[in-house]
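Running this now, will post back.
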Amino acid sequence: MADSRLLLDGTRITDHWLTVPLEWRNPTGESIQVYAREFVGAEVLAKGEVHVAGLPCLLFLQGGPGGKGNRPAKLSGWMAELVKDFRIIMLDQRGTGLSTRLDRHRLVARGTPQEQAAYMRNFRADSIVQDAEALREQLGLRSWTVFGQSYGGFCTLTYLSFAPQHLDRALITGGLAPLSGHADRVYQHTYRRMTSRNAEYFTRFPEDRERLDAVISHLRQNDVRLFDGSLLTVARLQMLGMGLGGNTKADSLHYLLEEAFTDDRLSDTFLAEVGQRLSFAANPMYAVMHESIYGMPGEHATGWAAERVLAEFPEFSAETDQPLLTGEMIFREHIRLDPVLAPLYQAAEALAAVDDWGPLYDLDQLARNEVPTAACVYTDDVFVDRELSLETASRAANLSVYETADFHHDGIHDDGPAILRELLSRTE
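Update: finished.
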């Protein structure tokens, strides 16, 4: 029997656990645990259990890779909107949250770097979708709606490829993945988007260019350590550009740079927050597995694509006079200097060398898709490029695109209810 309890706002949360194969192609081999949390709103509960049982279910697939399901203290935003009409199932994708975690301890215990890389190959979108199907069957559901944000949208496209018969509709925000091609293409688009986003940011806050230059100059002349003891390099500092992927996060970067210095040294306030923003301690999968989500059959190994493509965009080089802020690009240095990730450096090298990835998408199935599907594409998204998103949309049948320039990649956190109402209206 699943355990249930109430949040302070009256929302009922119920735990769901299931055991699944580590390797779905070997169902009798090693197994792992997968966890999901179900949310039923207070207003719905007030109508009685018969009403609750009759509600359709919506599976939410979080961004990542390596992002766990939301942990709200009370429902708000898009969850408060959707819980009126759905039982929301929040999956901790394998490797995250309360599911069997993929972290430095478990990975190192697997053995050699090659064995660690082989283990990580079981944590991509194809396995996540099979886990979701097992969960759906355990819940006794014929079908459900799937909503994928960012990487969750990538997983939703995989779902549409391999198990569309169990989807009522599919909703995607900021997550129309490229369906083919090498990872290099992704980062060529990403660097171009980040060039524009840097220009926009420093036009809004011209004083921040001077502040950033001062911090960079200080790093070049001094050995600066974060509070975890790791060296703060220019390339690591540039990762603060991740904040440019959101509307309000860009403003928070401005506030951070305002407090960079105390007299002639970097302030403790600045170093503490920079350390928090740059650390992958809570989500090692994001850094170590990031490029693997673009690994395609028939393509060369991803081979540290973001780091290689950097040569085409020298304005982002840590050696240039005024380097631009980077975004969703992971370099060897980011892993090697992070105390949590350093033990996984050789495994990351082995994963980057994999050149026989299995398929994540069925292009023929997507071309004849019958599941009502709607996707929100953010015009200036620096994480999931607009051009590549629209290319994907053109290759999938029955997919309606809602494009907006009002939000960036995290639009559902700014005005999720409005975005979801638009997508739902397009799939009715």
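The first helix runs from residue 42 to 45. More later if anyone needs it.
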